[in-house]
Protein backbone atom coordinates (compact mmCIF):
# COMPACT_ATOMS: atom_id res chain seq x y z
CA UNK A 1 0.00 0.00 0.00
CA UNK A 2 1.26 3.40 -0.75
CA UNK A 3 0.19 7.01 -0.66
CA UNK A 4 1.50 9.73 -2.96
CA UNK A 5 1.37 13.54 -2.78
CA UNK A 6 1.26 15.74 -5.88
CA UNK A 7 4.95 15.17 -6.68
CA UNK A 8 4.29 11.40 -6.84
CA UNK A 9 6.88 10.34 -4.31
CA UNK A 10 5.68 7.81 -1.75
CA UNK A 11 5.00 8.88 1.80
CA UNK A 12 4.24 5.37 2.94
CA UNK A 13 4.92 1.92 1.47
CA UNK A 14 4.30 -1.39 3.18
CA UNK A 15 4.56 -4.83 1.61
CA UNK A 16 4.13 -8.43 2.67
CA UNK A 17 6.26 -10.41 1.82
CA UNK A 18 9.23 -8.07 1.90
CA UNK A 19 11.54 -10.02 -0.42
CA UNK A 20 9.98 -8.52 -3.59
CA UNK A 21 9.79 -4.98 -2.27
CA UNK A 22 11.63 -3.46 -5.24
CA UNK A 23 9.18 -5.12 -7.63
CA UNK A 24 6.29 -3.60 -5.67
CA UNK A 25 7.89 -0.15 -5.84
CA UNK A 26 8.14 -0.49 -9.62
CA UNK A 27 4.54 -1.74 -9.92
CA UNK A 28 3.22 1.11 -7.79
CA UNK A 29 5.16 3.77 -9.70
CA UNK A 30 4.05 2.46 -13.09
CA UNK A 31 0.44 2.47 -11.91
CA UNK A 32 0.56 6.25 -11.35
CA UNK A 33 0.29 6.82 -15.11
CA UNK A 34 -2.91 4.79 -15.15
CA UNK A 35 -4.24 6.77 -12.17
CA UNK A 36 -3.54 10.05 -13.96
CA UNK A 37 -5.23 8.76 -17.14
CA UNK A 38 -8.33 7.68 -15.21
CA UNK A 39 -8.54 11.00 -13.38
CA UNK A 40 -8.28 13.02 -16.58
CA UNK A 41 -10.78 10.73 -18.36
CA UNK A 42 -13.29 11.00 -15.53
CA UNK A 43 -12.69 14.74 -15.15
CA UNK A 44 -15.78 16.53 -13.92
CA UNK A 45 -17.69 13.28 -13.33
CA UNK A 46 -15.20 12.37 -10.61
CA UNK A 47 -15.88 15.64 -8.79
CA UNK A 48 -19.65 15.62 -9.36
CA UNK A 49 -20.21 12.08 -8.11
CA UNK A 50 -17.59 12.24 -5.35
CA UNK A 51 -16.41 8.82 -6.53
CA UNK A 52 -12.93 8.47 -5.11
CA UNK A 53 -12.43 4.77 -5.83
CA UNK A 54 -10.87 4.22 -9.26
CA UNK A 55 -11.24 0.45 -9.22
CA UNK A 56 -8.89 -2.00 -10.89
CA UNK A 57 -6.15 -0.03 -12.60
CA UNK A 58 -4.63 -3.03 -14.33
CA UNK A 59 -4.04 -6.71 -13.71
CA UNK A 60 -0.68 -8.40 -14.19
CA UNK A 61 0.12 -12.08 -14.16
CA UNK A 62 0.98 -11.96 -10.46
CA UNK A 63 -0.92 -8.94 -9.10
CA UNK A 64 -4.01 -6.77 -9.35
CA UNK A 65 -3.43 -3.05 -8.88
CA UNK A 66 -6.23 -0.85 -7.48
CA UNK A 67 -6.39 2.92 -7.14
CA UNK A 68 -8.08 5.60 -5.06
CA UNK A 69 -7.78 9.40 -5.22
CA UNK A 70 -8.90 11.85 -2.54
CA UNK A 71 -10.62 15.16 -3.25
CA UNK A 72 -7.27 16.85 -2.64
CA UNK A 73 -5.66 14.61 -5.32
CA UNK A 74 -3.75 12.38 -2.90
CA UNK A 75 -3.31 8.98 -4.55
CA UNK A 76 -3.54 5.62 -2.85
CA UNK A 77 -2.43 2.46 -4.66
CA UNK A 78 -3.02 -1.09 -3.46
CA UNK A 79 -1.36 -4.16 -5.00
CA UNK A 80 -3.03 -7.51 -4.29
CA UNK A 81 -1.97 -11.02 -5.24
CA UNK A 82 -3.92 -12.20 -8.32
CA UNK A 83 -4.52 -15.60 -6.76
CA UNK A 84 -6.58 -14.00 -3.97
CA UNK A 85 -10.11 -14.50 -5.28
CA UNK A 86 -11.72 -13.87 -1.88
CA UNK A 87 -11.35 -10.10 -2.23
CA UNK A 88 -14.30 -8.46 -3.93
CA UNK A 89 -14.61 -4.92 -5.18
CA UNK A 90 -16.63 -3.89 -2.10
CA UNK A 91 -13.89 -5.13 0.26
CA UNK A 92 -11.21 -3.23 -1.67
CA UNK A 93 -13.38 -0.08 -1.63
CA UNK A 94 -13.89 -0.47 2.13
CA UNK A 95 -10.15 -0.89 2.69
CA UNK A 96 -9.45 2.32 0.76
CA UNK A 97 -12.05 4.20 2.84
CA UNK A 98 -10.41 2.92 6.01
CA UNK A 99 -7.00 3.96 4.70
CA UNK A 100 -8.33 7.40 3.74
CA UNK A 101 -9.87 7.90 7.20
CA UNK A 102 -6.62 6.94 8.89
CA UNK A 103 -4.69 9.29 6.59
CA UNK A 104 -7.12 12.08 7.51
CA UNK A 105 -6.38 11.44 11.19
CA UNK A 106 -2.66 11.86 10.48
CA UNK A 107 -3.24 15.10 8.59
CA UNK A 108 -5.21 16.46 11.55
CA UNK A 109 -2.24 15.91 13.84
CA UNK A 110 -0.70 19.35 14.49
CA UNK A 111 2.78 17.77 14.71
CA UNK A 112 2.64 16.22 11.24
CA UNK A 113 4.17 18.25 8.39
CA UNK A 114 2.31 17.54 5.13
CA UNK A 115 4.68 15.94 2.64
CA UNK A 116 6.81 14.18 5.27
CA UNK A 117 6.99 10.39 5.35
CA UNK A 118 4.25 8.87 7.48
CA UNK A 119 5.65 7.51 10.73
CA UNK A 120 2.60 6.71 12.80
CA UNK A 121 2.17 3.64 14.97
CA UNK A 122 -1.62 3.87 14.67
CA UNK A 123 -1.41 4.05 10.86
CA UNK A 124 1.05 1.11 10.82
CA UNK A 125 -1.27 -0.96 13.00
CA UNK A 126 -4.27 -0.21 10.79
CA UNK A 127 -2.34 -1.11 7.60
CA UNK A 128 -0.94 -4.28 9.18
CA UNK A 129 -4.41 -5.41 10.29
CA UNK A 130 -5.79 -4.80 6.77
CA UNK A 131 -2.91 -6.72 5.22
CA UNK A 132 -3.37 -9.66 7.59
CA UNK A 133 -7.06 -9.85 6.62
CA UNK A 134 -6.06 -10.08 2.96
CA UNK A 135 -3.40 -12.78 3.45
Which CATH-level-2 architecture?
A: 2-Layer Sandwich
Strands of the biggest beta sheet: in what spatial order?
2-1-5-4-3
Q: Element order, helices and strands?
A: EEHHEEEHH
**Gap from first CA to last CA:** 14 Å
Main beta sheet = 5 strands, antiparallel
Poorly predicted regions are none
Our estimate of the beta-strand percent is 15-25%
Q: What fold name stands as the CATH topology?
A: Beta-Lactamase
Category by helix and strand content? alpha+beta
Q: What is the CATH class designation?
A: Alpha Beta
Protein name: Trafficking protein particle complex subunit 2-like protein
Main location: cytoplasm
Keywords: Cytoplasm, Endoplasmic reticulum, ER-Golgi transport, Golgi apparatus, Transport
Family: Belongs to the TRAPP small subunits family. Sedlin subfamily.
Amino acid sequence: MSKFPKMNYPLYIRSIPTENELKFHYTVHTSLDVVDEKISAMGKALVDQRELYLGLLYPTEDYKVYGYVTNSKVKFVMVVDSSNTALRDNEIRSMFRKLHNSYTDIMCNPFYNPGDRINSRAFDNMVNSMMMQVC
